[in-house]
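Usage

Read records sequentially. Each one opens with the input sequence:
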Amino acid sequence: MTGQVSFDFTGATVLVTGGTSGIGYATASLFRDAGAQVTITGTKSTAGEYGVDLSGLAYRQLRITEHDSVDALAANFNQLDVLVNNAGANFPDGLDESKPDGFEASVALNLIGPYRLTVGLYRALRASPASGGASVVNLASMSALRSVPMVPGYSAAKSGIINITRNLAAKWAEKGIRVNAVAPGAIDTPMTAPMHGAAEIVQAELAHIPLRRFGFVTEIAPTVAFLCTEQSSYTSGAVFVVDGASDCV
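and closes with the structure output:
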């Protein structure tokens, strides 16, 4: 027996930041395959500079820590049904997040930039004709809910993501815009790949996970998509944890 869910986003307009790899790519691909018109962002000049198949996905360059870049992207949309704030990373530019400069850079990348983009897209989201309203899904992290001393800036930013999710959900409730968050645990992505070079780090992480494995991007993307369906139209301000039960130990 297998249990699978399918989605139909025919005609929907979707923006997925950081959609060239990892969770963002899996999410953008799911929306595309479900009939949506999907725009993804990346830091490189063109889509052709990436070593993955981005066919069927519109591409826009975005440097999310640069205000002009964020504002230019937001101005490109008159109507938007779904915004997935996925772009982000830890150790920005290789900086040590325990030092003030690294901490500040991580917060700028993972919190301030996504917030500026979301607010900048308010009018486009407000114009969405989607049944159940427009949807914003923010990618948080389990590091927002437990201590991860290696990445204090990233953790603080993701805690902020949860906070702005709840605040914007309340503020925009009467405007036809729902705002939710997904908090993945340890997921196999290019960002977490360096962990596999240090067995002690992997074992320490697995010790927090009752399912005793890292998750897959294909286990995150459907949760994001579900939050954008009309079946979840009564869900806003929620944080969906997808972490192999690590928050239970």
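Summary fields computed downstream for this record:
- Strands lie at 13-16, 37-42, 58-61, 82-85, 134-139, 177-184, 239-242.
- The mean pLDDT is 92.
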